[in-house]
Design a protein that fits this description.
The protein is an alpha+beta fold and about 100 residues long. Helix content is about 15%, strand content about 20%. The protein starts with a strand and ends in a 6-residue tail after the last strand. Bound molecules: FE2/S2 (inorganic) cluster (FES).
């Protein structure tokens, strides 16, 4: 499953993600800058904040209420903000593009 991370400066990095892992884990494993994931994916740090481009929003789905609450702690939150540890890699997400914020926390 190919996932492309685009940083705030527009640099794109495409990596191969394992099905069943999360977008946050994929980023960490591949040394993608701009994603920290300090809590290890427990939805309690908001340092795995990403933006989902409009064309991918329906495939990715909606955040859970717990994720919505945690997103309040991220900086520069936008309507398309998500916590990447709450997005599981699925075959339907092949080709997914996510944008990483200028900074976490
Ligand atoms: Fe901590 Fe996602 S890794 S909220």
């Amino acid at each position: 499953v190919e996932i492309t991370f685009v940083d705030h400066a527009g640099t794109a990095r495409s990596v191969n993600a394992e099905e069943g892992s999360t977008i946050m884990e994929t980023a960490l494993k591949n040394d993608i800058p701009g994603i920290d994931g300090e809590c290890g994916g427990a939805c309690s740090c908001a340092t795995c904040h990403v933006y989902i481009p409009e064309e991918w929003q329906s495939a990715v789905g909606e955040p859970s209420p717990m994720e919505e609450d945690m997103l309040d702690f991220a900086s520069d939150v936008r309507p398309n903000s998500r916590l990447s540890c709450q997005i599981k890699v699925r075959p339907e997400l092949d080709g997914l593009v996510v944008n990483t914020p200028v900074r976490q926390g």
